[in-house]
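User: I'm putting together notes for a lab meeting next week and I want to include a structural view of one of the chains we've been expressing. I don't have a solved structure, so I'd like a prediction I can at least talk through. The sequence is below, exactly as it appears in our construct file.
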Amino acid sequence: MEFKESVINLIKERTSTRTYDGIGLGKEHLDELNAYLDEINKEIKIKARFKIVSNLGTGKEESKKLGTYGFIQGANTYVIGIIDKDNNDAFEFGYAFEKIILFATDLGIQTCWLGGTFSKDGFMQLAGLNVNEFIAIISPVGYKKGKMRVFEAAMRTTIGADKRKPWNELFFNKNMQPLNEDEVGEFKLPLEMVRLGPSASNKQPWRIIKDENTFHFYVCRNKGYGIAGYDLQKNDIGIAKCHFDLTLKELGIKGSWKELKNVNSPDDWEYIVSWINV
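Assistant: Thanks for the context. Below is the predicted structure for the 278-residue chain, given as structure tokens.
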């Protein structure tokens, strides 16, 4: 199922919404989203699955029961991301979940990545988990309320939700000199789409080194940040891969993803994967 709108526009349009109108998704949107989740569940190569739970109620009591700690208000429908405890590939999981987020954006549905800011116990009863499964990520899906809550506005300001690191902190050549936007040619837009991606607490841990026709992806970890149980920062690199990959495909730029051996990693960086232009 293809996106109706340019994925580049969808990446630019997507924002995290935490205050919803309380009405819930219309049947047409719910059916389309369910159909897309079925596609993702069939194509994903790791032990993971995604499902929708809806008609949960929108009041404060329901929010407390679900355990979104007041971060989300007015949402009664969620996408739940479920993964195997022993095959916990946060990188590929993040790629798949971001495709769902972009598909929802294409439908005019608002979303918000939630990793560490919800109580898994509240959703476990709704998820119908199998043995050895756990909930890694959820997102409300619905329609934005007209006026943003003071709480949400303050939180967005605190984490700098609309701010992104500049190119010279994220993208480098093989000599570790910052890449110039004007020297990367057709790859300027795919890299910019990586830069615009969402990340846990807006940490933006992705780093990329361009070495001739190869782009090496790394995670630059924030000390003490989210590995226990589920690796949120590796999940973020999955989001970066998703934006880079989908943008390349839209632009007709061909290449392949490979996990290479003996790739040098700068201090405090962890190598994840490479994309090779062919």
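A couple of points you could mention at the meeting. The radius of gyration is 19 Å. DSSP finds eight helices and nine strands in the chain.

User: Perfect, that's what I needed.
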